[in-house]
Automatic annotation (TrEMBL), chains A, B:
Organism: Paenibacillus cremeus
Gene Ontology terms: cellular component: cytosol
Protein name: Iron-containing alcohol dehydrogenase
Keywords: Oxidoreductase
Pfam families linked to this entry: ADH_Fe_C, Fe-ADH
InterPro entries hit by this protein: ADH_Fe/GldA, ADH_Fe_C, ADH_Fe_CS, BDH-like
Fe-containing alcohol dehydrogenase-like C-terminal domain mapped to chain residues: 189-387
One GO MF term: metal ion binding
């Protein structure tokens, strides 16, 4: 186990009906002028928008709105939000939506007190030194953004998709009401499951040794997602299934709680970012395609971890099998599961061909090789992309 | 899963050598006048006292000392600490020790800004509304006090042992350096393992349904403690074993992270508190004796949880066995494990007879029946104590 620091100051308010406590929560942090950030309007259809606005009115807060945050949130939208905060003297940012909306809210939050352009943070040209406080009402179980300080933002014009992380960007509170996800369509439920499983993969497949607790915490989340995603797809209003998945999504990426002291990988995420910087596909769709191929490409680096994965997570019977066979059975089980819940298996399923593989591979390693489980150079990334066609 | 709130603002600094960052940490929170709280002097023998003092001097902090905190920390000592803080204008409390020292520090911290007597908080006569900030350097893996807001304090004169919990009592930071536990003697290593396992038991054996992730998180800690405690006993300076145990102790009771949305039990702790309020025994020694008997007394309330415990935690082979047999095999495995690592099995091992059973049973339920997995009235508590003789 490596040395580490862990600090996660986000308060989680979880349960049916907690969406109706957002006013109370805002009042308790003294919010007077609130920027309400949301996405494409599903919160209007579901009635959540009205419920939130009512509460904001009841506590007498001024409300400024930034609607229309994109599924891959764009820096142009973030810049609009920063301008609004400044011109309207906003003192608190409330994100109502999924990971994209919360990510955009974080970028606005860190951008407001900064004199330069917010994109500097994404390009590592400036250090984040403060932020407006923010909170979230989560409507989609997936990214874990509700309990961490990270965000992914896209500069669509320049086909760049970059991430930042800061202790200042942790939400003060996040409201997790599983009933808000009853209306999440099947494809987004699938994407959410793939996304949280992928977050765990990035942490679990690690070369760090002597981390038995962390490995088990990772496996716990994977097993629970696997059990509950199919149930949620079959019964979208099954509270237990939705609640279990929501908790898994949050714990999968809450500042690294499940993988403290472990080196993380994140190569697959970086490859996927380059795919979805060119093609406007769902992040998780890309991950579902890439991850089994990444696994196949790297598993020999540490076959014991893949054997453990196969046996503990997928219940592969190790009897009479070589390590190689067990590891490959686990990878195949992952692939089969993704297919079974309806995730895409090949880039071709999304209409993506070989045209831009070189560009994607090159951009992935623009600054340096990616990954730590196996360091991937340009030709490695290209090979994985090719396996994914 | 029940609704819940989770908030844990303690920063963890974990790893070899982190004890030498305490000065830096204190400087970053602006500590100028520090109350240094510690126990019976083991930190002087180990050299840790000198290392800490040196760092306090380097940052130019004034140091006030409160040595001699008891293994079951006493309210009389806490009162001394409160007086010292007031008379010496202390602005930060630093606990260097195990759970008892940190618990005492918390009680001092919440007592300073309160006009009445600190014991009021233990007797639920007053509400905690603030505290001096505190931090900790942990020297013993056991209670989890380093990452939660709870403390147990004893009024020795009146044979009362009571607990409080408050968001104000969370340490600002806790330094977890596994090498500091290399010199922990075998009996205290055993007590630590029993203590953290008991904390998990109190959360895991719950009537709340639909909590598959939480159950697995609990099992993950139990399995990791079981694997690593024997290794640490055999090889006291095995870094991996000490680090794994330390992390387990912290995660076992860090504000309820592993059991969010689950009703907890805590009956066994309450019974034990009454035993150690009369006999000055180690808390964990009492728990090791009581827990297998509590399990035997209550397992039929929800036999499926005990079956799961036996199979997943102890590897009991369920084939050809009834649920009853599987559950009992798990309880026996717990008992055997405690014996194997050297924990006491019977009250008689500690020289405790039947003399005060009535008093202990009566005091345990003074305010109301205890526990939630099975509500225990006075005669239930007495029966468990009798089974433990």
């Amino acid at each position: 186990m490596n040395s580490f620091r862990f600090y996660n100051p986000t308060q989680i308010i979880f349960g049916e009906g907690t969406a109706d406590t957002v006013g109370q929560q805002l009042a308790s942090v003294g919010a007077k002028s609130v920027l309400l950030i949301y996405g494409g309007g599903s919160i209007k259809k579901s009635g959540l928008y009205d419920r939130v606005i009512k509460q904001l009115q009841e506590i007498g807060a001024k409300v400024v709105e930034l609607p229309g945050v994109e599924p891959n949130p764009r820096v142009s939208t973030v810049r609009k939000g920063i301008e609004l905060c400044r011109s309207e003297n906003v003192d608190f940012i409330l994100a109502v939506g999924g990971g994209s909306v919360i990510d955009a809210a974080k970028a606005v939050a860190v951008g407001v007190p900064y004199e330069g352009d917010v994109w500097d943070f994404l390009m590592r040209k400036a250090e984040i030194r403060g932020a407006l406080p923010l909170g979230a009402v989560l409507t989609l179980s997936a990214t874990g953004s509700e309990m961490n300080g990270s965000a992914v933002i896209t500069d669509w014009e320049h086909q760049l998709k970059k991430a930042f992380g800061s202790i200042y960007a942790y939400p003060k509170f996040s409201i997790l009401d599983p009933t808000l996800t009853y209306t999440v369509p099947a494809d987004q439920t699938v994407n959410g499951a793939v996304d949280m499983m992928s977050h765990v993969f990035e942490q679990y497949f690690s070369l760090t040794t002597d981390t038995p607790l962390q490995e088990r915490l990772c496996e716990s989340i994977l097993q629970t997602v696997i059990e509950n995603a199919e149930l949620a797809l079959k019964e979208p209003t099954n509270y237990a299934a939705r609640a279990n998945i929501m908790l898994c999504g949050t714990y999968a990426l809450n500042g690294g709680m499940i993988s403290v002291g472990m080196q993380n990988d994140w190569a697959t995420h970086m490859i996927e970012h380059e795919v979805s910087a060119i093609y406007d596909i769902a992040h998780a769709a890309g991950l579902a395609i890439l991850f089994p191929n990444w696994m196949k490409y790297v598993y020999r680096e540490r076959i014991d971890r893949f054997v453990q994965f196969a046996v503990r997570v997928w219940g592969v019977d190790p009897n009479g099998k070589s390590d190689e066979e067990i590891a490959l059975a686990g990878i195949q089980a992952t692939r089969d599961y993704f297919s079974r819940i309806g995730a895409p298996a090949r880039l071709a399923d999304l209409g993506i061909g070989a045209e831009h593989l070189d560009q994607m591979a090159k951009e992935t390693v623009r600054f340096h090789p990616v990954g730590s489980f196996k360091k991937l150079a340009e030709q490695d990334v290209r090979a994985i992309l090719e396996m994914s066609l």
